[in-house]
Amino acid sequence: MSAYIIRRLFLIVPTLFLIVLINFAIVQFAPGGPVEQAIAEIEGLSTSATARLGGGVQQAEQGTLPVARGSDSESSYRGSRGLDPEIIAEIEKRFGFDKPAHERFWMMLRDYLTFNFGESYYQDRKVVDLVLEKMPVSISLGLWTMLITYLVSIPLGIAKAVRDGTPFDVWTSGIVIIGAAIPSFLFAVLLIVLFAGGRYLDWFPLRDLVSDNWDMMSWPERIVDYFWHLALPITAMVIGGFAGLTMLTKNSFLDQINMQYVVTARAKGLTERRVLYGHVFRNGMLIVIAGFPAAFIGILFTGALLIEIIFSLDGLGRLGWEAVINRDYPVMFASLYFFTLLGLVMGIVNDVMYMLIDPRIDFEAQGDR
């Protein structure tokens, strides 16, 4: 196992490099970069791109630098026609675009090796600080959603497999189908309308992870306030996620129940409970438990995006979305680097969990064949 893990760890480096390289190359061809947004701000077409630009850009906005309207100077930036080249050079220097693309790429990789992700273009804060600030929201949503989803789906899936074809299985399948048919964001809107002051009841808050007077609360009050804010977002995410896991658990157990070794165990006089939890459970839970790390990463960084927006929760999904919209490249690439690295590590954890749950699985021996 150790040799296999070492090989997988070494494969992280070229995989991560290629992912970052491809995305960096794509971004170079995407229109509307930070320089274009800064130019739009100067032209009066944007309100945020150069709010924190200093020096020549501020002088241009105040009219103290010459703006060569009608100039015939050529520029590769959309909307830059007529602007003094000194202003464009100042903007390029501010964002680091005064250097060639390949030089910027290698400088970025050099910094990322030491986890130096730079500063946000538009928030004047280190990217690491932004990520750490948003992390509690995303971890709270992802952790509690996965915990509740697994606690509900696994027992329900096992019960459906044992009672396959019974009225219990039919009625719960109807509930599962309804849960799978309703998108989590649509269910979130319904919860707001019903319980968050949208139209009927006003029982739950609609923004932030905790109340404004959090610091003044006792620890029991803080715990209640924390879960009070998370109740609706987590409910919306659980409804959208438990259906698939329930059916996966049921089908996995049904497949094992129909195996020959189960028939043999029953023929030996073992009780149904012993057969189910002594033989079927480990094999049936293999695919369910081993998929936990990947599922957690998916919910943590992508699945909660719309929920964060709907409930005004400032998490990692919302941070990444706003970085893409605002062309905040340091935040974009730092998020890509960090999430990709974490995803690759979780892939190794997946394989290790497979081998721990079922010792018969040996990826190292398969790779040698």
Automatic annotation (TrEMBL):
Return the Pfam families for the record.
BPD_transp_1 (PF00528)
Could you tell me the membrane topology recorded for this protein?
A: Multi-pass membrane protein
Q: Which SUPFAM superfamilies match?
A: MetI-like
Give the transmembrane ranges. 9-30, 137-158, 170-196, 226-249, 284-311, 331-350
Report the superkingdom from the record.
Bacteria
Q: Where in the cell is it found?
A: Cell inner membrane; Cell membrane
Cite the ABC transmembrane type-1 domain residue spans from the record: 135-350
Q: Which Gene3D superfamilies match?
A: MetI-like
What CDD domains does the record point to?
TM_PBP2
UniProt KW Cell division keyword: no
Record key words, sorted? Cell inner membrane, Cell membrane, Membrane, Transmembrane, Transmembrane helix, Transport
Q: Which InterPro entries match?
A: MetI-like, MetI-like_sf
**Which BP terms from GO are recorded?**
microcin transport; transmembrane transport
The Gene Ontology CC terms held by the record are: plasma membrane
Q: Which family does it belong to?
A: Belongs to the binding-protein-dependent transport system permease family.
Protein name (Swiss-Prot/TrEMBL): Microcin C transport system permease protein
Q: What is the source species?
A: Aestuariispira insulae
